[in-house]
Amino acid sequence: MNTLEDFRKAGEDIFSRLHLASYPISVTYIKDEADIPPGTFRPSQAGKKLALCQAFTLSRRWGMQVAMTADDNFCTPATAFHGWVDIGEEDLIESQVRQGWHKDRAAEERRIGGAWALLRSKGEDRMKGYRGFVSAPLKDTKLVPDTVLIYGDGVQLTHMIHAACYEYTDLVHSFFEGFAESCLKGGLLPFVLDSPQVVLPGMGDRSFAGIGDNELALGMPARSVFTLVEHLFKAGGDMNMGHPTKTLLPMDITETITPGFQFLREKMDEKKP
Fold first, then answer.
1. What is the mean pLDDT of the segment spanning 61-80?
2. 178-189 pLDDT, tens digit each
3. CA atoms within 13 Å, Cβ hemisphere of 16
4. Is the residue at 147 inside a domain?
5. Is the pLDDT of residue 123 over 70?
6. How far apart are alpha carbons 268 and 230 in whole angstroms?
C-alpha cells in the first residue's frame, strides 16, 4: 500500500528526471466538502468560478491546492459528465447542440450517447456519490490521489508511455475529439476505467487554461505513477533515446555539401604550405 509520502516522492522524482515545465498533478475525487483539506483554495468562496482545466493549471504552475465542485465550476457540461449534478442525457445533448461543436443534433447524439454509455457502463458504481475533486501538485498533495495527470512535450510523453508500457500490462488506449480532454481523459477516465489516457488538449483547455501549443499530457490511475518511476528510460536499454534526447548526428558531411563551403575549403587548401 503506497503512502501519501510515497506519492509525494514520486512527484518530485518524475518532475526532476523528465525536466518538466510544470508539476505533476494529484487529482482526488471527494464525496463531501468535509473532505477538502484546510487551506485549499475554493473559487466559490472567493465569489468566483473556474473550469476544471483551470484548476489543473493553478496546481501545476502555481503550486496551488484547489477544490472544485459544481458550485465552483462554470463548465457545466463537465459537471454533468462527472455526475456531480443529476442531469439527463437529453439535456446534455441539447446544451451541446446549442454550442454548435458538431454538424447537427444527430452527430451530437452519437457523440454524447457513446460517452454517456461508456461512463455509465464502466464507471457508474465508481462515480456514484462523488461531488467534486481536489487538485494539487503531486509533490505537495495533502490527499492520496485517485488520478495523476502529467503535462509535457512530445518527447516527455514518449518517455512516459515507454515506461507505462514497459511490462506491457498497463497499456495506453485513447480516443480523441478535441473537447473535454484534460477534465475527462486526464482526470475522470483514468479513475473510472483504471487505465492511462493520452490527453491532446482541447478547445477549452487552450482557450481557458493557458495550455501551451506544444503541451500534451498523460492521465493515469494513481498506482501507475510508480510504474513510471520504476521504468523511466529503461526502454531499449543503452539504446534509449534519453532526456535530453540523444539524437544521432550525421558524421560523413564534408565541405562539398554547399558551394560556398567548398569555395572556402579550396582557398584554405591553397594557403597550406
1. 96
2. 888 999 999 999
3. 8
4. yes
5. no
6. 54
Q: What are the residues whose beta carbons fall under 8 Å from the beta carbon of 208, sequence distance 6 or more? A: 51, 53, 54, 75
Tell me, what's the pLDDT at 121? 67
Q: Is residue 26 part of a domain?
A: yes
Higher-confidence position of 6 and 178: 6
CA 69 to chain centre: 20
Name the grid cell of 191. Answer: 479513475
Residues facing residue 149 across a β-bridge: 25, 219
Structural domain containing residue 39: 4-239
Between 94 and 141, the higher pLDDT residue: 141
Dist. CA 175–CA 177, nearest whole Å: 7
Q: Is residue 221 part of a domain?
A: yes
27 three-state secondary structure: strand
Would 102 be classed as within a structural domain?
Answer: yes
Total domains in the chain come to 1
